[in-house]
Amino acid sequence: MFYFSIFILFFVAVLRGDEVDRDYKTYISIYEYLVNGDSYTIEPTFILFTYLSHALTSSPVLIFIIYAALALYYKAKYIRYFSPYICLSLLLYYSNFYFVHELTQIRIGVASAIGFFALKYLVEERKSKFITYVLIGMLFHFSLVILLISLLFDRQKISSNFILSSIVITGASYGLIFLNISPLNLLEYIPISVIQEKLNIYKYQTANGMVEAVNVLSALQLIRIGAIILILCNAKKFENNTSMIVLCKLYTLSPICLALLSSLPAFAIRISELFSVADIVVLPILASYCKQKNIVRFLLVLLSVLVLLMNLYHNEIVNGYHI
């Protein structure tokens, strides 16, 4: 059932029409820029797949096939390795990340899939292999570099210092919003052209009202904060579960980044969404530790349905599907 579902999701992503998601036409435009000899700053894999697709099919179709295949392959491997309830994880993935990543932001979709699958090597203390996979993932989206922060984690326990730091940073992030202070101003002093270009794009989008302000008190944000509080309050239960410890620490960064970087909505959402990929597995693992497993699993199914309905009918992240 799991692999059959992955197979169906692959075909849905590949065969969608150009009006289904928000970014499809943008990728077509980038494809046309590149094949016409114009320059465009984008990750090298997209350039490679553009020329490959143009050479073999004289169209951009192969780009979407490759991205969907890679994203779903590594997301499936990520779920299979970490999750105690693979179909529950698949439902959590489908209700949110499938629409955001595989039907819209296809570059970060592949990058996040590779990066989170690579965490298995960090758990197994094979750091060089983890770093290699992250570097490969960066060829699909440069932002994956932030996943290297997991190298700094204590993978044996969730210490009281980590718990205290998480609480203080989260509180400080909301305090900075109240005081209208943006820590993103520090990025202006990083002399890396890619960072500066992306920062200028995000600033332009924000200044011209091209993106909506971040809702740092959204239902999903509050649910994640609630789940993190539950995890931190029961931190000692996970001391023998290296996978849970690593994933939880990454998961903790998701609401922090959304609040801390909220002055640039597009940037905040992108980074927060990357870390939140952890909840595909963290929530089912958390359910496996609860005494009333059936009730908690039912609540996660209900949560998935509500998030799915919110994405489709409130956020409208995709339009009506057509081939």
From TrEMBL:
Keyword Isomerase: no
Claim: Membrane is one of the keywords in the record: yes
Keyword set, alphabetical order: Membrane, Transmembrane, Transmembrane helix
Segments traversing the membrane: 46-74, 81-100, 106-123, 130-152, 158-179, 213-232, 244-264, 295-313
Protein name per its UniProtKB record: EpsG family protein
Native source species: Rahnella ecdela
